[in-house]
Structure formats: C-alpha cells, structure tokens
Request: fold
Amino acid sequence: MELDYDRLVALRKQSAAWRLLTANNAALMLSFLNKVFVEQGARSVVGAELAERLDDELFALNERLGRGTFPQSAKAYLDDWSAPGNGWLRKYYPPDSDEPHYDATAAVEKAISWIRSLEERSFVGTESRLNTIFDLLRQMTFGTETDPEVRLAELTRRRHEIDLEIERVEAGEVDVLDSAALRDRYQQVTDTAHGLLADFREVEANFRDLDRDLRSKIAAWDGAKGELLDEVLGSRESIAESDQGRTFQAFYDFLLAPSRQDELKTLLAEVEAMEAIDEPDPRMRRMPRDWLEAAERTQATVRQLSDQLRRFLDDQVRSEDRRVLELVRAIEAHVLALRDVPGVDVVAEIEAAAAAIALPMERPLYAPLVKTPIDSTDIEAGDEEFAADALFEAVYVDPARLTAAVHDALGARTQVSLAETLREHPLEQGLAELVAYFALPDDGFATVFDDHRQEEITWIGEDDVQQVATVPVVTFARINPGIAWATDQKEEGR
Reply:
C-alpha cells in the first residue's frame, strides 16, 4: 500500500487504531485493555465484571496520581470506548442474555502491537527471519511448479543435503545452535504466536463485515424470492470460500489434530527447558489453548451469523406471507360482494387442496460417489475373427417403465428403497433390469447409494434358477426443493 499524503489523511480519519493512539486517555485504555484482553487472553467479558475491574484500576490510579486524574465512572469510560464513533470495544448481547458483554476490537490489537514495537530490545535476531524468508520463497516456487523434471531435481537436491547431514552425524560431526541462534528463533516464535492470536480478532471482524454486507443486500432486494435465495446462498458460501475463510479453516483443521497438539506442547516444553532461554515468555505456555479458544470463538461467530441470517430470511418470508393473506382476504371480499349479483357465476379451480410437505429430517444424507478406477495400460488388440451374435442378443430395458415403478412405490412417501420397489414390481429382465435401476434419469426423485451397507437382491432367471446379486443399499428420494426449503424455514421459525 502506497503511503502518500492523501492516503495518510484518510487513514487518520478512518482508522480506529490511530484514533486510539491520539486519544486523551490512550495510556489508560492501552494499559487496561492490554491487561484484560491481551495478556490474560479474555475474548468476552461480562459488562458488570469489566466495569468492576476498571473501577479498581481507576481507584488505584487516582490514589497514586491524585484524585480527579480520571474523574468519570468506569461505566462512562466503557460507554465512551464502545461508542460507534470510536470502535475500541465491541459491546454486544449474547443469545439468551440481557446483560452486555465486551470484547476488544482488532484496532486495540494493532495499537498495542505498535506500542510494543517502540520498546528497545536488548537482543534483535535476524538470522532466523532470513531463513524463514528463504523457506517461504522455496515453498512458493516449488509449490507452483508443474514441470515434473524440475520437481524431481529439487527433491533430489534436498535428499542430497539430508544424505550429507546423515553422513556428518554418523561421523560424529553434529552442528548445534548456539545461545544467540536459539534466542533469535525463540524471539521470532513468540512474535509470530502473539501476532497470530491477535489476527483472530481481525478475522472475526471481517466475517462480520461480509455478513453485514450480505444482509444489507437482502434488505434492499426487490426481485423474486428464488433469485434472492440464490443470491443469499451464493454470498453465504462466498464467506467460507473467501481467502480468509479458506486459510482460517485450514489453520483450524491443522490445529485440531491431536497429534499436532501433542507435538506443539512437547516442543514448547523442551524449548522452555533450554538454558539459553533464560526468560521464557509465560504466555507461550498457554498459547495452544488460547489459539483453540480464539479459533472456536471465530467458528462460533460464523455459526451465530448463519443463525441470524436464517432468522433474517424468516422475517422476509413472514412479511411476504402477510402480504399473501391480505390479497386472499381482498379476493374473498370481492367474491362475497359478487355472490348475490344475478348472472355472475363465481368459480375458482385450484390444482391441489394442500401443499406436499417434506420434512428436513426425511432427506437422505449426502453420499459421495465412488469412482471406479480404470486401468488401460495393458490393452491388447483382439482377434478379428469372433462370433458377433452376442451383440445382437442384447436385452433392451425400458427406463420409462422402471421410473413409473419407482413413482408407484413412492406413492405418498418421500423415499423408498430399491428392495421395497422390487417387492412390488419384481424383476422381469434379470440383471440388466437391476443395473438399469441404478442409472434412472432424474424424474422427480434422486437415487442415493449407501456404499457402507449392502443387501441381496434375488430373482428367478432362465430355467427357473434363482439368481442372487449383492449390491449397495439404494434409496429413491423424492425431490421438491421449493417446498422443502419453505418447510425448513417455517420449522425453524417455530
């Protein structure tokens, strides 16, 4: 980002972190918020508890610096810091709670990080950062390389380096990091760990911004409901598929692995026990737990935003339902007015007396398709002289007849298994007809395969011989997206 004059002027007006640094009570805010939300790692504090802790801090400062140094009450300071024009604290009400909660914003983390960078350090390491730069550049270039020969050359080079190191270790030559190198790397580890924890607040704030933009688009929507639903689902998916969403999910999955957690705890304990690390950072001991809590809170924020979005859509649906009822009542009033008019015959026809209802729990779970591997490496030319009679004796199975059989078996149900369908409509053309059931066209129902369960299908073949085939459990489920979605929304509204 280019820091020209106009950009800096705009940034000074818009940046909450910049306003915090230039505020009159910046020292009070930074010291108190750093103690509560950064050093102690709190992510959400009840308003009464935070006001009590700030009141104790104000009392101690007024006793030491003189009464009247901070004349306002703790609640007044919290209200000022959480005001929309400042944005240093986020004041919100969790679900099922009528008491406000507070959390520091990303601006506080940025301001505290900049203040920490002003402190003089007795030791400044540079070697580990240079090594990190080289490692990242290698990962970027090697990770995007598509030429197999280049990749093999790089892997061969790395294997050669490992072989040389193995030979040196076998010969008794062991390279050990000195105390300066250890402190250099430990300093970089702590800085990165603290920065990663601070980034969670900004990631959470960005998720909220994405969701706020989405709901603003819904509020101003004037098109059809189907187009609105497509827009909502596409935009909601874009939150998870955004760059920040993908990187956060990758970090969360990586950190949730039990082996990674155990390895991280073991490595931290071993590093802190080293003599060169004479003053280990106390926050590093609980850093894995803080990471998990912060990541889980961000995940909870995304889930909460999804719930709020569904309720927001419910409000839209209820508003449209009220409009429909108003139109129906207006039509009824006109019909009643015309009922006694001579020569006017008021007749209306409807397609169905009631809507078909598909409950959400009746829908089958998604089952991934298993792709059959095809090996075509050893194909040989066949014999030109062969009997082609079998090609002309192929059995034709009418898929329309099988589709009608499935619809008949479904009846008023939302789903039916293949075995139940065959009990009502036995196989007439043997194995060919059974295979045809697996590939029926989409005609109002979906074919769902459960590869984890199997069942036996029997039929009477030629010469009155019973045939048996073991197949995955197959279910035919009725498809009605519009009704299913509306039912889902009404069920959640209840």
About this structure: The longest helix spans residues 287-339. Strands lie at 45-46, 89-92, 101-104, 415-417, 445-460, 466-478.
